[in-house]
Fold O-GlcNAc transferase C-terminal domain-containing protein.
Amino acid sequence: MAMLMMKKTRMVPFLTCWLLVISQVHTDQDIGDSLSWSEEEVAVVESCRQEAASLEERMRIADSFTHQGNQLSAQGMHHHAVLKWEIATTCDNRSNVPWNNMANSFFAMGNLSAATAAAEISFSIKADHMSSTTLGNAYRAHKMYERAEKTFLAGIKYCLDNKDRHEHPFWSLAMLYWDQGDYIEFLKYSKLGLDHLSRPECVETAEEQVPCHIPDFEIDLMTRVYEASVDLGKFLASHGRYQEAETNLEWAEYVAETYPAERLDVQLVRKHLTCLKCAADNTQHRSPCDSDLDACRASWRDTNGRYLRMMAVRAMGCEWRHREEDVRDLERIMMSPNMTALLNHTTEFYFECEKGRVCGAGAQPPLHMWGLPMSLESVLVMGKVQPLQLVDRMLVDGPPPQWAYPTWNPSIGTVLRIGLLSSDLLRDHPVGNMMRHVLHLHDLSRMDVTVFLVHESQRYAASRVENEHVLGEVKFRMIGRGPHVTRFFDAQESVEGADIVNSAGICILFDLIGYTADHRQDIFALRPAPVQVHYHGYMGSTGAPWIQSYVADRWIAPPEHANFFSEKLALMPECFLGPSHRLSFQFAGNEERDFSEKLHTELRKEEGLPPEGPVICYFNQHFKLDPPTFKIWTDAIQKLVSFNSSAHPTLWLLQGSPISHRNLKREFQSAGLPGENLVIAKRVLVKTHIRRASLCDLAVDTPMYNSGATGADTLYAAVPLLHIPGLKVPFLLVPVLVLVLVLVLLLPSIPPSTSYA
């Protein structure tokens, strides 16, 4: 295919993207010389390139080739369609239509990079409903969720500003929120999309019938609207919020009446609406519908409700609009007989949605539940629920294999073989950074140490010669990521991983993951080693019968609370953590950046902080946050401003998820604070993070789940940490880091004359 170059004045700013798109048509899709412009088409392109024809004629030619490309694309001939659209863009590069169509064809051909490049060009020409939808979906496919959200919102703004009726940017944004488990925003933008529907409304009366075709994607989305409305309506009804419940159920009724789908049960919705009316009216006297009302209430309070089970997603995303209801539901679930049902496995409630998948984007129960107020007994129960799921999923194909265990006799000099299973060692991760210096401190004359790796990046780091001084003579074996909660469980995959451990002759196998991301409890459940120990990666009891011991200290596992741990406690004399920040600066691969020579203002600008004013930092994961604590912070910031109107206090948070950023910004602004004073710090290597943390004036902590390794990083950066004692004993992590921490100066007592410059 001919590569015809246009004048630079006409190509800017499209030249780079154009070359990328065209080159990928050749290489990725393997288009040969047979797919090329005809001689007549080459002449047309040359004429357009030299501007030999008038503007009107070039526009006519572009429209013609755009139409030809559309016809070819409709027939599935995407390669040929792209050639036609290339001619259209050459003759008239002011239209975004051929670029947008080209992006959609690249999507169909599986070329996401080329699709994104073409969509970005289309969006740069005109940020309308069409280009924003295509580009937003490209970003969504790349998992660039915040960029996708901004792009969809740009398309929505275009529709609103121009009174343009197009549902696609609204519904694309709604689906983004659905993927993130945000029912409230999903329903909001789904309804707005209906208000801006571009197709004719389907009307059918006795006098008039207007036939219309409803696209499959619209039926699919409206099915989700129905399910979300019913789930949310029942959830609200269970907490006596009848008016809000009625609004959601009426939407479900409308969808069920309007759209032809098997799963839309209008009679069921009407039954719940009738029950709502009875519940609202039935305050003192029993009404004729009491029997149905009792059945409805049982359905509303069902712990299998999808929205109820998404409390882990809401905790992770700082979605606090139903926080009080979540706390009450958690208390109800953990009370007898619900707790007994959980332990006896007579209910399907697993803090998940269906078939082993967690609702929403990446929530990891029970870890992400710990930001909620729970008793020690509840922590243990939530740990015990997880093994019930694992055993069920793994024993479908029959009983697990029986392993032959190695023997160890120190009296005859037998080498003790120790295994460490971790997804974080050798990665720039708090657990990995803490544990680095532990590896090479093992006495390899008396023991053999093998680290079982989960990520390929871990294997790469272990193979680097530069890291030998940190790793010592430790062995490494790869077992892979395995079936953690975002995938289906595969019993054979678990057996293969356990066989790798057992074949290494491991006597003591340490678990450094627990129930955090990429966990391999499926391997521990098969008991490949005679002694299996829980340590470090997960604070609290695993509740797993295959874990015999828990290495901790008196702070996170006080002996007087041993009954709240399923494992036998093995307490370290002082601290169970092993901070190794000194070695963090020796580990190969950390980027070299010299902060010491930069001015303070330049550092703040680089990190997106205002040039002056106090900086209050919180660098932990967002699921640890709770509404009362966040309100204390915003109140303190408001007091700082009242003491000194020229102060510009900033709350600096570590990067979380797109949904948590959105929700925290909403909470911050609802407290009367400007959104620009809430700054998100990008995730960087620990070496860089410790250096930039010195910009903080004060680090704050959360009582539901204290700072751990992140707190150690902050203290190592010489930043004072305002600690609030944990409400749950296993999460008293800061006292582990500093046995005595006394802050005489508290935020509310700062005098008005204090300077914050």
